[in-house]
Design a protein that fits this description.
The structure holds two protein chains of two kinds. Chain A has one domain: Rossmann fold (3-Layer(aba) Sandwich), CATH 3.40.50.280. Chain A contains seven helices and five strands. In chain A, strand 4, helix 5 and strand 5 form a beta-alpha-beta unit. Chain B is built from 15 helices and 21 strands. Classes of the chains: A alpha/beta, B alpha/beta. At the A-B interface, helix 2 of A face strand 17 of B.
């Protein structure tokens, strides 16, 4: 059976490479085909890679607090590029300062992200949830 | 003495080069004007008689030829995303010596198909999707091509999952399936497609272009001319069999209609804190600027830099520059022949053609501030550490001002983002033998290298 393809990378002007490497190994170990775009990845790069690789999901990381700005409009761009309904997953330290995670999650879901993970999420949790999305089709984009 | 004849069938000139393998030396070169495709044999006969006047009659042991006659190897390519598989397909074709008539991406439309029908490419390179990635696009495009009334060879070098299906769709066509130009995201794999292009060129294109008559006289037309030049410069850079090369280099060939740039260099980011973006570029890279040339494309140089800059460089008044540019655009066979005004203008044109073409060939870097400080984002090849520039082509090898021209291939403070060499030794292909030596290198690489090292003169240093 074809492996599920994930596009991963750290969005915006963020150069935090360590978490990205850990995720790459964890996702690969878990049986995914992983396209790792590394750090400082623009929305357009995520989308181009997803189109070419026929991706099953895009996993966006952000650690430097600007994630909300960087992620805005990504769902709309996916729709435009013919990736309608592709699962979008985001995680890390995605907003500035201390904010209640419930609010943050709500805002990102409104932006079209299917899963939003807080700081300190273990790779296992992410893997389990990604599998759930891909196997059950349980995600925001389809529900809309 | 073991004399070998090397022939370059061009669209306007047939060039012949005679070498002695045993003596590892150049015997002579000559060229003759070719008027029409049908007269290709006459062009060769004329060139040979000019050569014979110089060298005396020679019985050649072997004869090899390359060709860019009849418009060169005309290719159309198609990928999925413009900067990914379409770019990989472009790099593959250019590196195989092709002239690209059009690059398509995403799904081919009815208008695209109509355009392809009119353009009649010699070969179509169909790519799209990484292995296991997108299949819809390449399958759609294979179906779109099938509707064309006139067939041409199609190379399928896309998603391997879809390749066989595309082959079936194009049943009855000359279809060649080879490895994906981008098997994984960001991995360039252009050699299999290039070998296939060359194979098709050898066996099919030559016949179609009426060059078979000529090929009976010689041991065979081995490759397209740009591909021969590429082989020569790679050999010159790397060396072979204990004979040292000159190291990483850039070669600039300014022609009447196009300007070709070749680089044989790694080009990976040279400094720390650099993030690389975009497709990795091939170690041996060729680019062709179809809008930059000394005559047919003179207005491309004008569009790029403006009359004022050409006038400043040439020292002619703006009005006179404008008049002459117009004149040369019409009289495309006009040579300076010692007329000071024309020499000055050609100097300016050659300098600017070099500047435009090398700038487009080289990578760029930009500074970005991240939360952890300054980082550099590079795309394309970093050629700042390349220390050799080789100049070839009529307008560069017949001038004395090669160093002044070569400066335009270098880093300039006005364009700090362009990753061109900081300073370099300038080599000039005065006897115009690069293509011939590329041909010779197929069978006698070491001899070809030794002759190049003798004949390609170091002309100075540009800074």
């Amino acid at each position: 059976m074809r492996k599920k393809v994930l596009i991963i990378g750290v969005i915006g002007a963020d150069v935090h490479a360590v978490g990205n490497k850990i995720l790459y190994h964890a996702f690969t170990e878990a049986g995914f085909e992983v396209v790792n775009l590394g750090v400082m990845v623009s929305q357009e790069e995520f989308i181009s890679a997803a189109v070419e690789a026929g991706a099953d999901a895009i996993v966006v990381s952000s650690l430097y607090g600007q994630g909300e700005l960087d992620c805005r409009g990504m769902r709309e761009k996916c729709d435009e590029a013919g990736l309608r309904g592709i699962p979008l997953i985001v995680g890390g330290n995605i907003v500035i300062g201390k904010q209640a995670f419930g609010d943050v999650e709500k805002r990102f879901k409104e932006m079209g992200f299917d899963r939003v993970f807080p700081p300190g999420t273990s790779p296992e949790t992410a893997i389990a949830e990604i599998n759930e999305i891909l196997n059950t089709g349980d995600r925001m984009a389809l529900a809309k | 003495m073991k004399p070998v004849l090397l022939i370059d069938f061009g669209s306007t000139y047939t060039k012949v080069t005679a070498v002695d393998i045993d003596g590892e030396r150049l015997l002579g070169t000559a060229s003759a004007y070719t008027t029409a495709d049908a007269d290709i044999i006459n062009g060769l006969a004329n060139a040979l008689s000019v050569l014979e006047n110089k060298t005396g009659k020679i019985e050649y042991a072997e004869k090899y030829a390359c060709s860019s006659a009849a418009g060169g190897l005309r290719m159309a390519v198609c990928g999925l995303v413009p900067e990914l598989t379409a770019e990989a397909a472009r790099l593959a074709s250019l590196g195989a010596g092709a002239k690209i008539i059009k690059i398509y991406s995403y799904q081919l439309t009815e208008d695209d198909i109509e355009e392809i029908r009119k353009a009649k490419p010699d070969i179509f390179l169909l790519a799209g999707g990484t292995d296991g990635g997108n299949t819809e696009c390449i399958v759609h495009n294979a179906k779109a091509l099938r509707s064309l009334p006139e067939r041409f060879p199609v190379i399928i070098a896309g998603n391997r999952t879809a390749a066989a299906k595309c082959g079936k769709i194009l049943n009855g066509w000359q279809v060649f399936i080879c490895e994906n130009v981008m098997p994984k995201f960001g991995v360039l794999n252009i050699e299999p497609a290039q070998n296939q292009i060359r194979e098709i060129f050898l066996h099919r294109i030559i016949e179609a272009k009426g060059i078979t008559k000529a090929s009976k006289l010689i041991s065979g037309i081995v490759m397209p001319t740009p591909s021969a030049v590429l082989k020569a410069v790679q050999l010159l850079a790397e060396g072979c069999g204990g004979e040292k090369g000159i190291g990483s280099l850039i070669t600039v060939d300014v022609g009447g209609a196009t300007t070709d740039v070749y680089s044989v260099a790694d080009g990976a980011p040279g400094r720390i804190n650099t993030v690389y973006k975009g497709l990795p570029e091939p170690y041996v890279k060729r680019t062709v600027e179809g809008d930059i040339g000394m005559r047919y494309s003179i207005h491309g140089i004008e569009d790029c830099f403006g009359i004022k800059r050409i006038s400043q460089l040439s020292g002619l008044s703006e009005n006179r520059t404008r008049e002459l540019v117009k004149l040369l655009g019409e009289k495309t066979d006009m040579l300076p022949n010692g007329v000071p005004e024309l020499e000055a203008l050609d100097f300016a044109l050659a300098s600017l053609a070099t500047e435009a073409a090398v700038t487009r060939h080289a990578g760029t870097v930009k500074e970005t501030y991240s939360m952890s400080g300054l980082v550099y984002v590079q795309s394309g090849k970093d050629l700042t550490e390349v220390r050799q520039i080789v100049l070839t082509g009529g307008s560069l090898i017949h001038t004395k001002r090669t160093n002044e021209i070569a400066v335009h291939a270098l880093y300039s403070p006005e364009q700090p983002a362009s990753l061109r060499p900081k300073d370099a030794s300038v080599w000039v292909d005065r006897s115009y033998i690069l293509a011939a030596m590329g041909l010779l290198s197929e069978h006698y690489p070491k001899t070809a290298l030794k002759i190049m090292k003798k004949e390609i003169k170091m002309d100075g240093f540009a800074k």
